[in-house]
Amino acid sequence: MKKYIHRPGIFWIGIILLVVPGLVHAYLLMPFPGSQDLNAITVCYYLEKIVNPLRLIGAIFIIWYLFKFYAKNTQKGKIVKAVVLVLCLGSFYITDYMYKAETMFKETEAAKFANGLSNKVPLNYLVVGVVNNGVAKAYPVIYLGYHHKVQDNVGQQPVLVTYCTMCRTGRVYNPIVNGIRQNFRLVGARHYNAIIEDESTKTWWYQATGNAAVGKLKGQHLQELPYEQLTLGAWLQKHPTSLIMQPDKLYAPDYADLKNYDRVQYIDKDSTLKNKDSLIRKSWVIGVIINGQAKAYDWRHMFHKRILNDELNNNSLLIGIEKDSLSYHVWNAVLNGKTLHFDLDKNDQLTDKETASVWDWDGLCTSGAQKGQRLTKVQAYQEYWHSWKHFHPKTIFWKEGEREEPLAVIFGF
């Protein structure tokens, strides 16, 4: 019997199984130092499936040890093992609550909306705007940034409106997958981008791209739905009857944590950086993808320029940022087979050089030879540079005064 007194390995194996898988899983799915740079989404996916079974095995080992051998420990040994068990409870709090995405960022259970007359959201707040079947809805970025996702309907179209503050990525998707409307949960993050899981197949999807990274539907893509990102005031000028998502009082402190997120660039808060035009990880860019070719436009340089006539993959584009410095647009500059080139007049209106017609910031010609014509919108994204270049490694980068080159050439990849 004496030999069993010296078998603490049973206890420590149980502790390892009880604690370590959960800690590793939490580390890989949250933005801890170094964790997001690892290509570990597949490891995370399968680790999540075995964490609880391993915990159960660990608990069996520990219970076995406590019944068989604990009483035979020295007083010091008993205290050490009792303290370790208490610390285990603390680790569960860390892994299953404190650093669990679902508990850190809760989705509002019933999003409330108001029209322009009863709206309480400031007009200078940035929103993600969606229109379908004549119905317009605006989702303030500050609220989306905390919740990460809102599952809703716009004009009878189911929508999954998402936002990830680590990447500055807003995306709107159709939540119907293989004919079934899915309920999505927030899993965590990989490469600083939110990962969401559908309820039916448990597939994990990247928020920034809608790509299924791992799981039953790996390789498939969520259908992206068109949206605009602009100030609420600019949105209501276009869609005066729009409904606006209102703040959920339960999460007021969480919204407050994102104060000024939608308008102040990280580079402006960095007092150590003297050249504010430097390109850093959290520099804002406008991203566009045309027929598989991605291009990023430096936000600060675009803001100083205001509008840019450009080409991407044989498509003529007009990129513009409104005077409010937050609302941006990209249009196809070809109308009736002819390419138009634009300037800004003294009244901050768009004018084309070919006919001197005047256009508003919704792409509608309001006066001149082209009156009544409308430019076609091109889906564009505002994103942090680190996110755009990660998910679009072959992107072209535009910056005023620099020759355009693919990312691989610029950074020597």
TrEMBL record:
Protein name, as recorded: DUF3179 domain-containing protein
Pfam families to which the protein is assigned, alphabetical: DUF3179 (PF11376)
Transmembrane segments: 9-30, 50-67, 79-99
InterPro entries reported in the protein's UniProt record: DUF3179 (IPR021516)
Species whose genome carries this gene: Mucilaginibacter ginsenosidivorax
Record's keyword terms, sorted: Membrane, Transmembrane, Transmembrane helix
